[in-house]
Amino acid sequence: MALALATQPRRSVTILGATGSVGRSTLDLIARAPERYRVEALTAHSNADGLAAAARTHGARLAVVGDPACYRRLKEALAGSDVAVAAGSEGLAEAAARPADWVMAAIVGAAGLGPTLTAVRRGAMVALATKECLVCAGALLMAEVASSGAMLLPVDSEHNAIFQALRGEAAESIERLILTASGGPFRGHTLAEMAAVSPREAVAHPNWSMGAKISVDSATMMNKGLELIEAHHLFGLQQDQIEILVHPESIVHSMVAFRDGSVLAQLGQPDMRIPIAYTLGWPERISVPTPRLDLGRIARLTFEAPDPARFPALRLAEEALRQGGTAPTVLNAANEIAVGAFLAGRIGFLDIAALVEAALEACAGLQAESLDDILAVDALARRRTETLVADWSPSRAGTA
Ligand SMILES: NC(=O)c1ccc[n+]([C@@H]2O[C@H](COP(=O)([O-])OP(=O)(O)OC[C@H]3O[C@@H](n4cnc5c(N)ncnc54)[C@H](OP(=O)(O)O)[C@@H]3O)[C@@H](O)[C@H]2O)c1
């Protein structure tokens, strides 16, 4: 820590999605080292009170709510402070455009794409938690990273593990990546049991504490499918070079196999502050107050192949990546709508993957070249999935 203080100037940071699970973990780390970090901007969607409290505590210069209807509440909550206030997509763009050295992209879903691109285009150091950005517009985002000189630091624990294992390695020595998956709360469930699970059961992840959307994605294993697409773009590897392995203990966060037969893994407690800290301190390691890994106590680490029959979302993501074009954009949009419908009690758990599959069929063959095209496909896929949800007969996927 003393060495880090001596070598790194104070870093200005912006957090897109500051009121969420990743955002709050990031603020927790920042609060422990105020001499190292200064907060430029914080954003939320509608949690104006939570955002205002964080902005006051951390001395942010700007606070932004994405939902314009929440502007007034945020303004009132920050009355008398030095924090500037903004709202809407322009406000989010302003937060991302401000000259922070480091930006945490942690808005859930493709809604994070615009602000993330803004931060990338000004060449910032961008810690990327929002995997949906890479699923929705991976080729475009990576091209923007290359042309702007931005530094993309993976926050997802699996991709962060791979990023750590690849440090100093030549691209041609990589043989394959092994993405680990916890298997989620329904790893041992039969399809019939899964048909009856409630949103509350689906968000209760056995190892990780996360936001609702990613927790449901973990339960369907769509999360691992999204991460497969994310890894393909981040590390520039072909689909057949990326393997998925279920590892229920969530201790080995992922691995890289090299051409000499060596396999490097990163291990740690399932605490998002560890990968976040790796990006926040980059290129230095900073202290994280998490319980230390005690492998003697854990005693056993297990691995198994995923079951595509019980977790069809994984197969759908694999097919979308293989198909390319706009299929991953449609997959992501349809999944966001289907997960929202499940959380709202409108459809059953197994209907999520069934709806995504139906949406992929309904949106087959769409073309997209530019960002505007991609956003149009995303919007169309959402509308078509909404229509499918409205007409959905839950019995089609076996729900009661
Ligand atoms: N949680 C994890 O452990 C974890 C791990 C790896 C990757 N990730 C990824 O990180 C991202 C965030 O996950 P999370 O679990 O932190 O989510 P979360 O707890 O649901 O938080 C989402 C954040 O995004 C904001 N937001 C939601 N919709 C928005 C919109 N339309 N426009 C602008 N802001 C919006 C929310 O604001 P409000 O609070 O006002 O709604 C909140 O600040 C996801 O892409 C997820 O896949 C998360």
Explain this structure.
This protein is α/β, with parallel strands linked by helices. It is built from 18 helices and eleven strands. Helix 6 (113-121) runs parallel beside helix 7 (131-148).
Q: What hetero molecules are bound to the protein chains?
A: NADP nicotinamide-adenine-dinucleotide phosphate
Strand content: 5-15%
Largest sheet: 7 strands, parallel
Q: How many helical stretches?
A: 18
Percent range of helical residues: 40-55%
Mean pLDDT: 95
Radius of gyration: 21 Å
Tally the beta strands: 11
Distance between the termini: 55 Å
What would you call the structural class? Answer: alpha/beta
From N to C, what is the helix and strand string?
HEHEHEHEHEHEHEHEHHHHEEEHHHHHH
Apparent shape? globular
Strands ordered across the widest β-sheet: 4-3-2-1-5-6-7
User: Uncertain runs with pLDDT below 50, 5 residues or more?
Assistant: 1-6
In short:
The chain is built from 18 helices and eleven strands. The protein is globular, with a radius of gyration of 21 Å. The protein is an alpha/beta fold and 400 residues long.
List the helices and strands and how they pair.
Layout: H1 2-7, E1 11-16, H2 21-31, E2 37-44, H3 48-58, E3 62-65, H4 71-77, E4 84-87, H5 88-97, E5 102-105, H6 113-121, E6 125-128, H7 131-148, E7 151-154, H8 157-165, E8 174-181, H9 191-195, H10 199-202, H11 212-220, H12 222-235, E9 242-246, E10 252-258, E11 263-267, H13 273-281, H14 295-298, H15 312-323, H16 327-343, H17 349-362, H18 371-391
Parallel strand pairs: 1-2, 1-5, 2-3, 3-4, 5-6, 6-7, 8-9
Antiparallel strand pairs: 8-10, 10-11
Helix pairs in contact: 2-13, 3-4, 5-6, 6-7, 7-12, 7-16, 11-16, 12-15, 15-17, 16-17, 16-18, 17-18
The structure holds NADP nicotinamide-adenine-dinucleotide phosphate (NAP).
